[in-house]
TrEMBL record:
Its cofactor is NAD(+). Belongs to the adenosylhomocysteinase family. GO terms for molecular function: adenosylhomocysteinase activity. May play a key role in the regulation of the intracellular concentration of adenosylhomocysteine. Signal peptide: none annotated. GO terms for biological process: L-homocysteine biosynthetic process; one-carbon metabolic process. It is found in: Cytoplasm. Pfam families: AdoHcyase, AdoHcyase_NAD. This is Adenosylhomocysteinase. The lineage of its organism: Archaea, Thermoproteota, Thermoprotei, Desulfurococcales, Desulfurococcaceae. It comes from Ignisphaera cupida. Its EC number is 3.13.2.1. NAD(+) binds at residues 150-152, 184, 213-220, 236, 271, 292-294, 339, 346. Substrate binds at residues 53, 124, 149, 179, 183.
Length: 414
């Protein structure tokens, strides 16, 4: 058995954490039972780059119940829960992940699981897909298909598709309604605030919170911050989203102006250099900087390092930068995903739907590998709807269904 984790003795602790997550993921539990009986993934080798958390472990166990062999690496050097990684290694997962990986170790782990010759690839951010297309093309040509968990990763895959270099079909799990409307909005909204609070223990009420980006992630963060009593400012580059933020009751302005006002800044754009040197220099003393985007490029750590006269770690997950003026700025989680670096990421309940989409999409690829084209697909509507139905059932909620007469009425042009 091949694996590389920080400390195998943490496995028992990890098993308890996985058990806790499983108890709060009823949809995936139903799929686990189905997979155990039907074995739809028998003989299938899966390489996955995901945040190695207790929720991910429940997905991995579900795939293995379906007959798959799983190779797993982390999608962020600082997001791995080491006890969970140890528990998975003991269960027979080829897991190569530990918290605090260097950049080189991070990409070495991706290389290792790519060289396992996977039939299916699962990715969170697109680094595995990018590696296969840039450094392991022969392996990529043999892949049946893949999935992608994040907005950032889907953007990268769409770029590959546009350039006509995509070597296998990919299902954009992020685009499922039961993923982005809940995971991105409610999951990231809550877990981002959770990460900030765990790192700082500050009071949100009364603070001016600047949220960069009003996509589904930004919406969720803004709603949660306002719900805790913050005054929320939105910055945007998309006029439609900016207008929506205004209609939702938020202040909207350019970052140059917001930089002078905010107490807490949270980036959620998926783009680079959202907050840079010129913004840092305008900020008040004591500002807190956090990133909720996938990569550590939204808050320019490079610029912050270049203008600071000193820095120090003053709390776990909090780095203080002192500027020439004497102002202090506080960066959380080294500019990486604040909800996973400073907290535990999304709650199990919301990941239940996201990972149910992953499991069912993997089965769909295996069953349809001979007819799928080399392009990016949305999650089939029947999978999306089934996930919602199962989630409602697990909550004890029943809904109406159309009568035959109602169905005919909706289908008639008269």
């Amino acid at each position: 058995m091949s694996y590389k984790v920080k400390d195998l003795s943490l496995a028992d602790k990890g098993k308890v954490q996985i058990e806790w997550a499983r108890k709060h993921m009823p949809v995936l539990d139903i799929i686990h039972e189905e997979f155990s009986k039907e074995k739809p993934l028998k003989g299938i080798r899966i390489s996955a780059v995901l945040h190695v958390t207790k929720e991910t472990a429940v997905l991995v166990e579900t795939l293995m119940a379906g007959g798959a062999e799983v190779w797993l690496a982390a999608s962020n050097p600082l997001s791995t829960q080491d006890d969970v990684a140890a528990a998975l290694a003991v269960e027979g997962v080829h897991v190569f992940a530990w918290r605090g990986e260097t950049q080189e170790e991070y990409f070495d782990a991706i290389k290792t699981i790519a060289e396992a010759q996977p039939h299916i690839v699962i990715d969170d951010g697109g680094d595995l897909h990018a590696y296969l297309h840039s450094s392991a093309e022969e392996i990529a040509r043999k892949v049946f298909g893949g999935t992608e968990e994040t907005t950032t990763g889907v953007h990268r895959l769409k770029a590959m598709e546009k350039q006509k270099i995509l070597k296998y079909p990919v299902i954009a799990v992020n685009n499922a309604l039961t993923k982005f409307m809940f995971d991105n909005r409610y999951g990231t909204g809550q877990s981002t605030i959770d990460g900030i609070l765990r790192a700082t223990n500050i009071l949100i009420a009364g603070k001016i919170v600047v949220v960069a980006g009003y996509g589904w992630v930004g919406r969720g963060i803004a709603l949660r911050a306002r719900g805790m009593g913050a005054r929320v400012i939105i910055t945007e580059v998309d006029p439609i989203r900016a207008l929506e933020a205004v209609m939702d009751g938020f202040e909207v302005m350019k970052m140059d102006k917001a930089a002078e006002l905010g107490d807490i800044f949270i980036t959620a754009t998926g783009n680079i250099d959202v907050i840079t040197k010129r913004h840092f220099e305008k900020m008040k003393d004591g500002v807190i900087l956090a990133n909720a985007g996938h990569f550590d490029v939204e808050v320019s750590v490079r610029d912050l390092e270049s203008i600071a006269v000193s820095k120090r770690e003053i709390r776990n997950c909090v780095t203080e930068y002192v500027l020439p003026s004497g102002k202090r700025l506080y960066l959380l989680g080294k500019g990486r995903l604040v909800n996973l670096v400073c907290a535990e990421g999304h709650s199990s309940e919301v990941m239940d739907m996201s990972f149910a989409n992953q499991a069912l999409s993997v089965r769909y690829i295996v069953e349809n590998k001979d007819v799928l084209e080399k392009r990016v697909y949305d999650v089939p509507r029947e999978i999306d709807s089934r996930v919602a139905e199962l989630k409602l059932r697990s909550m004890g909620i029943e809904i109406d269904s159309l009568t035959e007469e109602q169905r005919r009425y909706l289908e008639s042009w008269k």
